[in-house]
């Protein structure tokens, strides 16, 4: 009988180190998140296509650069004037892609499953933003990067998509091939707080 293979999370090898960091009492929790469906949507907006997409997702299409909004089970993230990333925590990638393609194709838009393109980490706690500033040129203070903000940037020489979920709550999307390097950078940067404590 053939053995059933299950995909491993790109960060499974770092789970123990991240758990230890989160339990170290530094005011920082770093958690790899389960895989989620993600679809890249290209569409001319604003217009009827954007309105139709927004109705289907239960939220208005974010038209302000570098912002995102909640959907029923994920996010709708502005990437460029005609591009958004739609995530769904509970959806199947193929079904989400099919549904969104059906909606936007009527308006000369496109929807492509990019679920395997990124993995996500959640950084929470009073030191989450401070830690990322060691390797990011953006001003990540809540006054400059409030909840609802998004940025395509680099952190520690790694290209990421960064979402501000709250003052002490950030989501980082990173390519799976760079995820290990990024986590190693996070663990190294966190040594600064261990030394100070």
TrEMBL record:
InterPro entries: SoxG, TrmE/GcvT-like. It comes from the Bacteria. This is Sarcosine oxidase subunit gamma.
């Amino acid at each position: 009988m053939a053995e059933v293979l299950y995909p491993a999370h790109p960060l499974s090898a770092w789970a123990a180190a991240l758990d230890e960091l989160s339990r170290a009492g530094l005011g920082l929790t770093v958690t790899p998140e389960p895989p989620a469906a993600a679809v890249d949507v290209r569409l001319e907006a604003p217009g009827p296509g954007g309105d139709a997409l927004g109705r289907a997702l239960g939220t208005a299409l974010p038209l302000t650069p570098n912002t995102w909004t909640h959907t029923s089970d994920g996010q709708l993230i502005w990437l460029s004037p005609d591009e958004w990333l739609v995530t769904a925590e509970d959806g199947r990638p193929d079904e989400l892609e099919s549904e969104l393609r059906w909606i936007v194709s009527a308006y000369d838009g496109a929807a492509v499953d990019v679920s395997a393109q990124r993995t996500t980490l959640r950084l929470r706690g009073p030191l989450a933003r401070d830690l990322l500033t060691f390797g990011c040129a953006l001003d990540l203070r809540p006054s400059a990067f409030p909840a609802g903000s998004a940025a395509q940037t680099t952190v520690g020489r790694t290209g990421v998509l960064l979402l501000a979920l709250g003052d002490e709550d950030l989501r980082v999307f990173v390519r799976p091939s760079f995820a290990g390097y990024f986590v190693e950078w996070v663990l190294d940067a966190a040594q600064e707080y261990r030394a100070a404590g």
